[in-house]
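*** Residues and shapes ***
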Amino acid sequence: MTLIQRIILATLFIIPIFAIGFFLTQRDEEPHIVEQPAGQTNLPAVSNTDTLPPNHPDPQAQVHAMITELEQKIAQNQHEFKDILLLARAYMMTKNYPSAAETYEKALVIEPDSIDVLLPLADVLAVIDQGKLTGRSFDLLEKVLAIDPSVPMALWLMGNAEIQLERPDKAAEYWTKLYYIFPEGSENRMKVGQQLEEIGKAPTPSSTPAQSSAPKATSSKANAQAIHITLDIAPEAQEKLKGTTVFIYAKSQTGMPMPVAAKKFPGEQLTSSITITEADELMPNRKLKDIAQLKVGIKISKQSDVDNKAELFRVEQALPDSRKVNLVVQF
């Protein structure tokens, strides 16, 4: 696998398309996929020293070249399971959703109980079906939750599916569970609570005693992993923030540069103090607590996606033991 292929695949944000309305209000608005950890796919790690040479070809062109290469390997039966996953993800990058769905179906035959196949397949099928989660997507999401009842993305999508089926009581069951998974006071919990209120099912401490005790431990755990970021924003930079998109993220200092947790803000709403917690993690099985050495960064972009060509400013800093970082914003 070439360096450009490794970097393109490693740096994908890992959120399903159909979750944009909720989980991506702080993150990437372009459709992306659920990434599988390197330990499961045997993908080579991408080192911080791996950089693209000057005048390197357009990454999109490289993606299309990679698609052609993978298609040929699979047609000749000279592929591994990871090649099928890579091809599906590459199709997603190029918004070729029918081909992505077909390829994920092939992966599902090989690994029928893989959440990292089931969830993106449910997601892309819903997109193809004009947003409907009530067909095969519903069955796939049910299987995800049968394997792991606490996958946040699946809980959120199943709630949406039940709303489409006009079953608000069932939607409330999924969203209430999701509500208590998120730490108390987190933005995600607040948003789930708002959705529950809209369908007349606002959670109350007395109505769910068993669950109401769980978030306290989760909140305490999240607080231990919280990253506190202060920003020194130069006056000239403050004036340039209007109309931009700001990404605040935490990622490993070594290995794959894919963010572990992230927040997204309109530039004009950027404040001088931000906290990243477990609620901002991008994938259920990739946790802040599992990364020994983290670094924190801020990226300011002219666009709402993560296209590096639109980048105006970026700075990163290693996270000290105090889990407090100050970043200077000046561009």
Q: What stands out?
A: DSSP finds 13 helices and seven strands in the chain.
